[in-house]
């Protein structure tokens, strides 16, 4: 018999909220291009603008600061590349990016592109063994040559190990030098209070499917004085920053989910943190010398995301664990990027000083609004056999003949 | 049974995986990542380790509804196949890397990991047949002799064979393509891979030269007269005629072939065609696919993949075997494998150490 599925990969994508399904489904039945001038178009536009206002209200932004995109990757691309191009066009000296070493590839690969093809320089914001950046280092990096900096970017919370970064402090440091600050808040919405104005960020990326909206819709919160060169050109939607017909049903869903996530933030944190701590403690108690990556204190939701469990299991390959848990009906992730499907040691763990060999035994389990105590129980029940098997497989395949 | 289907991204392993599922096994597809720099091989349409191949394999796995994983065996592959290949050539021998890969990767590293993870067996898209009867399990040639791959599986021992499935051995290649098309596999018309998967451009000589460096030396005839020169003896193999660039023609105008490669003195020896024929082969690294035969046995001996089979008599002693062919075979190079058959059944295999004329 196929075991019931225990879904512990909400950081990859989280189920769409029932209230969102309802709102999106209703909207899918309506015709209307929000750019059309007739009544049908006006009705669609009204939905878009009300959604925009609703999202702005929930996240401490002005409606005009909400730029709808296809999701986190596009938002990060627009923020990083768009800022670099615009800022350098204003002043040729601005060719340097100050970037978190543990950013998502949506940011890292933009930076790599700009370095390789457009002569960008990059200064990396390192992290401590908990994965946390130091605002003082950002200050030092800026002050090496403030005139050369095009953008500072640091994620709000890390997608692998769940570490919450000091974005308010870093935004402050950047602003002292008049440098724009971008934060990838994809993992933060729904698990942390996010107030765009209070954060000091100039650009903030978010995507809906991490907190109950459909896949394929997100936003870049963009301060009105931020300068960006668009990635897409065409109809001039979204303040000319993101041309393309607005996806009205998805935008409606994003708004409903954002409001829901904000209104239920505290109860959701309380719900998740209990499960998280039970999972972490339960895994450690199984006695495989399992360790937690990232900061962890019972009940704390300000330094580590309430829904993030990231374990290091010695003497295992993460992909073996993944397979064995999957076969037992427990779905999770190694959390790291793949090359041709082969898990690579995570750049996040390496930046935290985890040895490469240890980094290969990483397992990410992430909770969300549908998670229950039964999920934790199922995971803890499946874990020991999986670890034993994975360790045996690891020993078997070491070395050559 | 719980079975890993090794899925290269080609049509054969795709159909093999589908057939395993239909036989009622619990199947998981595994693609082996064998290159350390998979992304750089993106351009290569063939080979076993490109991103495109992994994607093709995944599509098939999704279509037949089985879990699919990529297992990183790049380090083992480099150690046990690629470096072995280089070492063997450097020693003046001519190895078969596919055979080595079956022996040490697919039915060793992959099988061991699979067993450790709780699987019972590995299935591949090789054209060969496994027969189970009262005498036990035996390996046989495929019904499609043009595709038969029992030769490159001849290194498997009884334990490895006990955990192997070759679901395609009873079918011809055209039928497999037809079946793939009927199953709606996107790879149904994908060209066959051939040559050596880790030498993407097919230029073995250039590939070896880049790794071993140039080691110039003389090309001599069997009397010791220097008749040419070469950039590295490792690039030559016994029986080779083309690409010798000989400056001194023979007085009788006879064609000359490589008859010996002597890596230590970096010498390539050429001679006339009659010197190529051998009928006594000494092999080492002997492996039996089943029970070890006693005394002299009448066998069929195959000396290269898709090569002809020679009637012969084999006598084993310890780890070595002497195979006496009933007529001469040409171009037998040390390092090649000799696979022994009894009818369609594979009896065992050995690596050619030396060869002579009776």
TrEMBL record, chain B:
Q: Which residues are the active-site ones? A: 101, 197
Q: Which domain of life is it from?
A: Bacteria
Q: What is its main location?
A: cytoplasm
Q: Where does the tRNA-specific 2-thiouridylase MnmA-like C-terminal domain start and stop, copy by copy?
A: 281-352
Alphabetic keyword roster:
ATP-binding, Cytoplasm, Disulfide bond, Nucleotide-binding, RNA-binding, Transferase, tRNA processing, tRNA-binding
User: Which Gene3D superfamilies does its entry note?
Assistant: Adenine nucleotide alpha hydrolases-like domains, HUPs, Translation factors
Site positions per UniProt: Interaction with tRNA: 126, 336
* Record EC number: 2.8.1.13
Q: Establish whether keyword Cytoplasm is in the entry.
A: yes
| UniProt-annotated binding residues for ATP | 6-13, 32, 125
Q: Which InterPro entries match?
A: MnmA-like, MnmA-like_C, MnmA-like_central, MnmA-like_central_sf, Rossmann-like_a/b/a_fold
Q: Which CDD domains match?
A: MnmA_TRMU-like
Q: Its catalytic activity?
A: S-sulfanyl-L-cysteinyl-[protein] + uridine(34) in tRNA + AH2 + ATP = 2-thiouridine(34) in tRNA + L-cysteinyl-[protein] + A + AMP + diphosphate + H(+)
Localization per Swiss-Prot or TrEMBL: Cytoplasm
Molecular function (GO) terms for this protein are: ATP binding; tRNA binding; tRNA-uridine 2-sulfurtransferase activity
Give the span(s) annotated as Interaction with tRNA: 147-149
One BP term from GO: tRNA wobble position uridine thiolation
Its function, per the record, reads:
Catalyzes the 2-thiolation of uridine at the wobble position (U34) of tRNA, leading to the formation of s(2)U34.
State what protein this is by name.
tRNA-specific 2-thiouridylase MnmA
Instruction: Give the source lineage, highest ranks first.
Output: Bacteria, Bacillati, Actinomycetota, Actinomycetes, Micrococcales
């Amino acid at each position: 018999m196929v075991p019931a599925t225990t879904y512990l990969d909400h950081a990859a994508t989280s189920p769409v909220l029932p209230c969102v399904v309802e709102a999106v489904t209703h909207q899918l039945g309506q015709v209307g291009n929000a750019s059309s001038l007739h009544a049908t178009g006006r009705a669609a536009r009204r939905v878009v603008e009300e959604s925009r206002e609703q999202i702005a209200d929930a996240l401490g932004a002005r409606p005009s600061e909400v730029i709808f995109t296809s999701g986190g990757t596009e938002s990060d691309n627009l923020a990083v590349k768009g800022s670099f191009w615009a800022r350098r066009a204003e002043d040729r000296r601005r060719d340097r990016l100050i970037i978190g070493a543990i950013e998502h590839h949506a940011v890292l690969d933009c930076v790599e592109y700009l370095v390789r093809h457009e002569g960008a320089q990059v200064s990396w914001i390192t992290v401590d063994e908990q994965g946390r950046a130091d605002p003082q280092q950002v200050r030092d990096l800026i002050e090496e040559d403030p005139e050369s900096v095009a953008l500072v970017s640091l994620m709000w919370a890390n997608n692998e190990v769940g570490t919450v970064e000091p974005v308010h402090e870093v935004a402050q440091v950047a602003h002292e030098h008049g440098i724009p600050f971008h934060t990838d808040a994809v993992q933060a919405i729904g698990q942390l209070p996010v107030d765009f104005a209070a954060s000091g960020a100039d650009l903030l990326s978010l995507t809906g499917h991490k907190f109950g909206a459909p896949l394929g819709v997100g936003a870049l919160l963009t301060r009105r004085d931020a300068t960006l060169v668009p990635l897409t050109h065409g109809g001039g939607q979204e303040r000319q920053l993101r041309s393309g017909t607005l996806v009205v049903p998805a935008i409606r869903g994003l708004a409903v989910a954002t409001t829901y996530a904000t209104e239920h933030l505290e109860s959701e944190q309380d719900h998740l943190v209990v499960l998280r701590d039970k999972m972490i403690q339960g895994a450690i108690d199984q006695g495989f010398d399992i360790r937690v990556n990232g900061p962890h204190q019972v009940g704390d939701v300000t330094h580590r995301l309430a829904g993030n469990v990231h374990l290091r299991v010695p003497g295992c390959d993460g992909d073996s664990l993944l397979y064995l848990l999957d076969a037992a009906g427990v779905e999770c992730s190694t959390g790291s990027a793949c090359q041709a499907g082969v898990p690579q040691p995570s750049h996040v763990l390496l930046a935290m000083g985890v040895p490469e060999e240890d980094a290969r035994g990483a397992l990410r389990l992430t909770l969300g609004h549908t998670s229950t105590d039964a999920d934790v129980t199922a995971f803890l029940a499946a874990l020991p056999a999986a670890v034993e098997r994975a360790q045996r497989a690891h020993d078997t395949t070491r070395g050559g003949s | 049974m719980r079975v890993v289907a090794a899925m290269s991204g080609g049509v054969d392993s795709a159909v093999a995986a589908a057939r395993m599922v239909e036989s009622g096994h619990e199947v998981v597809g595994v693609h082996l990542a064998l290159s350390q720099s998979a992304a750089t091989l993106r351009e290569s349409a063939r080979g076993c380790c490109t991103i495109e191949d992994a994607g093709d394999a995944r599509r098939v796995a999704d279509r037949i509804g089985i879990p699919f994983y990529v297992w990183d065996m790049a380090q083992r592959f480099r150690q046990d196949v690629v470096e072995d290949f280089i070492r063997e050539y450097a020693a003046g021998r001519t190895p078969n890397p596919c055979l080595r890969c079956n022996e040490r990767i697919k039915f060793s590293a992959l099988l061991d990991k699979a067993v450790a993870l709780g699987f019972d067996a590995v299935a591949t898209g090789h054209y060969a047949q496994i027969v189970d009867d009262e005498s036990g399990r035996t390996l046989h040639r495929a019904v499609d002799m043009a595709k038969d791959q029992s030769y490159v599986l001849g290194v498997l021992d009884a334990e490895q064979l006990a955990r192997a499935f070759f679901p395609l051995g009873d079918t011809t290649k055209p039928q497999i393509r037809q079946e793939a098309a009927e199953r709606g596999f996107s790879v149904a018309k994908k060209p066959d891979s051939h040559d050596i998967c880790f030498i993407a451009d097919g230029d073995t000589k250039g590939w070896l030269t880049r790794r071993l460096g140039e080691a110039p030396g003389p090309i001599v005839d069997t009397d010791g007269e220097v008749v040419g020169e070469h950039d590295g003896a490792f690039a030559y193999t016994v029986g080779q005629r083309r690409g010798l660039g000989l400056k001194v023609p023979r007085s009788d105008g006879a064609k000359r072939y490589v008859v010996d490669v002597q890596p230590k003195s970096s010498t390539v020896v050429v001679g006339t065609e009659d010197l190529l024929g051998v009928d006594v082969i000494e092999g080492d690294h002997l492996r039996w696919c089943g029970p070890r035969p006693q005394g002299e046995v009448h066998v069929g001996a195959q000396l290269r993949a898709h090569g002809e089979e020679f009637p012969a008599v084999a006598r084993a002693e310890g780890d070595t075997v002497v195979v006496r062919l009933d007529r001469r075979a040409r171009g037998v190079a040390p390092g090649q494998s000799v696979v022994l058959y009894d009818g369609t059944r594979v009896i065992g295999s050995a690596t050619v150490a030396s060869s002579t004329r009776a």
